[in-house]
Amino acid sequence: MTVSPPPHHWPLIIIGTGFAGLSIALHRMKAGQEDFIVLEQAQSPGGTWRDNRYPGCACDVPSHLYSLSCAPPWDWQRKYAEAPEIEAYLAHLAHSLGSRIRYQAQVKSAAWQAQKQLWQVELNDGSRLTCRFLVAGVGPLSEPAWPDLPGLKNFTGPLLHTARWPKDQTLKGQRVGLIGTGASAIQVGPALAQEVAQLIIFQRTAPWVVDRKDHSYATGTRRLLQRLPFLRQTYRAWLYLTRELKGLAFLWPSLMHRIEGGVRRNLAHKVANPQLRQKIMPTTPLGCKRILLSDTWWSTLELPHVTLETDPIHHIEAAHLVTETGARHALDVLVLATGFRYQDNPMARLFKGENGLTLEEFWKKQRSAYLGMMMPSFPNFFLLTGPFTGLGHNSIVFMIECQTRWIQAALAHVTTQRKNEFRVRAQVYEAFAKEMNQRSKKTLWMQGCQSWYLDPAGRNTALWPGFSLSYWWRTRHFNAKDFEYA
Ligand code: NAP
User: Is the C-beta atom of 337 inside 6 A of ligand 1?
Assistant: First the structure.
């Protein structure tokens, strides 16, 4: 018997098996459209929840909201799921796609072939595939950002980044330095404090941290949520609406300023030590960066073997981190919780649109995409969780599902019209970017903070400047007149 080689042409190729890639694939399977393949660079699915393995890694969005509405219910163990449980959830979803997912298929480049009206996708093993439509679910927060600190490369001990945590790494009994106090740091810090001999946390900007109020679900609650779809959906809707209401404060800074007083009082009440209290009191407006959730951050800072260093880092010298005032901290291990390359994500070099123009070149003027998904020089190409579709107050999975439905509608329209090619009109793209810039100006994110939301010109290009409900409204239909066809 001869085995036929796998087909090289697909109507649709999806890249990535995180929430975004799986969402499109599962919606398509559910609609009986099995005309696609999913490419995954790693050996297993999960995207960011496979790659972020640092101790304490969890989600700060409630699990019942941080899951796909089209997928079967999952028996979430906690209000805020830990990374391994989310990874298991995604692996379970991926399993249902069977051989539709090709693992260890790392995309080296994807280039638009104008004459053939196809995308040519080249993999790292040298093989080539073609497709009519290409969906990139490659994740905007995938590439670790390494700080530009003098001497960092010459640090003599292990240098660990939270986004690339080695499997089975243990730091028991070590003197550990932790750089950063963002969303990853406030999770890894308390977890590390439980095993290390000494933990020095280097803080550049004091973060705003509020209570997470995490808890595991009682067995009875889990059973009820599993068995009663109405209860589960009502709970999900309640979680969604309470978060959506918080969006009010992000869009109306005066409202957030009022809330700020209460958060400050809570902070002052939580930390008894006056010197520490002074160090942790934020100097930036509440909400201009991600508001962090933790039940353990402040108590960790009060532990006798934990030090919060606020003196700026000057350089690193062999096994010492030296601050600007000359303090020398001897360290065995240095942990970087320094975030991701969002604004200059190298994935933008992989995609080549018309005339070989890369996404990186196309975005030179400004990182933008119509509805966060499409660019004029990139026909038949959809970007998931693209510019302007992040959220500071609600679940990104909601945005992904809005994008999924919209892409499904777009593909249905183009297919029924028997068109081979479609692209967003340049004027529509420009008008959208202008509107996003205008609306972003009023938000808190552009009021005095440095964050990964902002490009070098200080413009928000990351978050949706509105309620997620308004994104749903904008994406509920595919507006055929906004596109050109061939
Ligand atoms: P981040 O928010 O960008 O924080 C990076 C931290 O490193 C900041 O405290 C930053 O200080 C510090 N830093 C960077 N370079 C430095 C340098 N040269 N010297 C000293 N300090 C430096 O990164 P992240 O914590 O990894 O979070 C990124 C995003 O990932 C979040 O906003 C969120 O969207 C996502 N995330 C989500 C979860 C979740 O629970 N869902 C968990 C983790 C991450 P400054 O503040 O002064 O810049």
Answer: yes
Closest atom of ligand 1 to 149 CA is 18
* Centroid of ligand 1 to alpha carbon of 127 (angstroms): 37
Residue nearest to atom 10 of ligand 1 (CA): 180
Rounded Cα–Cα distance for residues 36 and 87 (Å):
23
Residue 201 has pLDDT above 60, yes or no: yes
Q: Taken in order 124, 126, 129, 134, is the CA torsion positive or negative? A: positive
HSE (side-chain half, CA atoms, 13 Å) at 205: 17
Question: What pairing do the DSSP bridges indicate for beta strands 128-136 and 118-123?
Answer: antiparallel
pLDDT digits 0-9 by tens, 155-167: 999 999 999 999 8
Nearest-angstrom CA–CA distance, 469 and 398:
9
Contact 474, 371 (CB under 8 A): yes
Separation between Cα atoms, residue 14 and residue 34, nearest integer Å: 12
* Ligand 1 touching residue 161 (CB < 6 A): no
Q: Across the chain, what does the average pLDDT equal?
A: 95
* pLDDT value at 4 more than 60: no
Whether residue 184 has its Cβ less than 6 Å from ligand 1? yes
How far is the C-alpha of 42 from the C-alpha of 166, rounded, in Å?
A: 15
Distance 373 CA to ligand 1 centre (A): 25
Mean pLDDT, to the nearest integer, of 257-271?
Answer: 89
Query: How is residue 57 written in tokens?
Result: 């890694």
CB of 147 within 6 A of ligand 1: the answer is yes
Ligand 1 atom closest to residue 186's alpha carbon, by position in its atom list: 25
